[in-house]
Amino acid sequence: MPCVYTVPSGLCDGKAALSKHEHYLPRALGNFKGDERLVDRICDSCQARFAKFEDVFAHNSPEAFFREMVGRVGRKKHRGKNIFYEPTLGIAPLTVLGKFPGHDFEILWEPVSSEGWAPLSQLVFIAKDGKTFHLPFRQGAMNAEKIRTLLEERGVSADQIVAISNRADEAAGMKELTNELAPKGREKDDVPPLVNGVQIEGEMRAAISAEYLRAITKIAFHFVLQHFTQFSGLEPEFNDVKRFIYNGAADRRIVEPLREPFVRELQQGARMKRWGHLLSAEASEQGIEARMQFFAGPPVQPIVWRVLIGKNPSKIIYKQSVGRAFFYFDDLGGEFHGERIDLTALERILIPTNPLIRIIRRFSRRAH
Q1: pLDDT in the model for residue 316
Q2: Among 71, 103, 285, 339, which is least packed by CB within 10 angstroms?
Q3: What is the Cβ-side half-sphere exposure of residue 39, based on CA atoms within 13 angstroms?
Q4: Which of 55, 361, 30 shows the shortest CA–CA distance to 218?
Q5: Cβ-based neighbour number of residue 340 at 10 Å
Q6: Total H helices, total E strands in the chain
Q7: Pick from 183, 94, 100, 171: which is nearest to 136 by CA?
């Protein structure tokens, strides 16, 4: 069987070998006991292509933020990347904004422990009209000309500049830039470093880019291929979703966010004991769709993604569904970072809600 992306024409050329180890759940999310691989369905060339926007999913997304909170669970041999400083595929780094204690302007922050945050090394440009621009500082990555271009694109004038440095060897480079960008007298006093971190009230911002949505869709489609083995993946009903994954082209809605959890117990108010990922797919006469929630955990219920895979290619259509959960262990230091379980066995991972609360919620929904 050829790579599924050889159909429709114009995508994969079919020359590369088929992969034995395609992770439908990105390996950047961890190594889970009981996980499966998609074998002989996707070629090595397509894998390399998809890895680029999976990099966005892992390093420049809401999931990237929670991945930092849980712990870095990717491959140990891969270079570590600071997602708060480094862009991914040209997309600006993940941003966490909050006021510095004792000041009235926001700055960029990064986690230094499970509970503490510290300022990034950065330059903060503050215009007279109150507009600000925050630039993570990486030695040698920026010059004054590039910064002026960025300020012009964002409509921010450098009426005041705040320089924050976490390392002694950055001070000279920062001073050189501020001297060139700010006429004498326009610099604000430098903000002193916070060595051990502080607790802040901040706002996390992550771009929902086209590359990110393609990564979400790829996970969903490959999950369907893994678990609905009656489909080869070459059926014309999958052409739309494959075009979107491969090159971002779409003539219909492919992926959309949902506000309500798709797991019944979570809808009723239960919470997770551990951090994990929830994936499900259903094939029926209405078509094939997948729903996914990444980094659901004790304190939060992140966004649910619904992916409309396409019409059901089956000649005889009956309803079929599958659900998997991937939960992290408390100790991430072993061979496996967590385990895979069926969604039907989810009860042992949940903290049930009070039955009275369930009744109140049902009554409230009916009243509306």
Answers
A1: 86
A2: 285
A3: 4
A4: 55
A5: 18
A6: 8, 16
A7: 94
Burial track 302-333 (b if 16+ CB lie within 10 A, e otherwise):
bebbbbbbbbbbbeeeeeeebbbbbbbbeeee
DSSP track, 105-141:
SEEEEEESSSS-EEEPSEEEEE-TTS-EEEEE--TTT
- DSSP class per residue in 268-290: TT-EESS-EEEEEEEEETTEEEE
Q: Which of 135, 193, 129 is nearest to 161 (CA)?
A: 135
* Rounded Cα–Cα distance for residues 107 and 121 (Å): 10
pLDDT at residue 188 is higher than 90: no
The Cα–Cα gap between 87 and 135 comes to 12
Q: How many CA atoms lie less than 13 Å away from 346 in the CB half-sphere? A: 25
- In the numeric block, the tokens 């009656």 are attached to 230
- pLDDT category at 201 given cuts 50, 70, 90 is confident
Structure tokens at 151: 């300020």
**What SS3 class is residue 362?**
helix
Token pair 């059901």 in the structure block, residue:
312
Tokens of 85: 């400083």
pLDDT for the residue 359? 44
Give the tokens for residue 42: 């996707």
pTM: 0.85
User: Which pair of structure tokens corresponds to residue 167?
Assistant: 């390392």
The helix (run of H) or strand (run of E) holding residue 195 is: none
pLDDT at 190: 54
Cβ proximity of 250 and 240 under 8 Å: yes
Q: Which two tokens stand for residue 46?
A: 């397509």
Nearest residue to 40 (alpha-carbon basis) of 284, 233, 327: 233
**pLDDT one-digit tens code per residue, 269-300:** 788 888 999 999 999 999 999 999 999 888 77
In the chain, the N- to C-terminal Cα span, in Å, equals 53
**What confidence score (pLDDT) does residue 142 get?**
85
Element (H, E) at 44: helix 44-59
| Residue 219: pLDDT band with limits 50, 70, 90 | very high
Q: How far is CA 142 from the centre of its chain?
A: 26
**pLDDT attached to residue 4:** 98
Task: Check if the beta carbon of residue 160 is closer than 8 Å to that of residue 186.
Answer: yes
Paired tokens of 126 = 């503050």
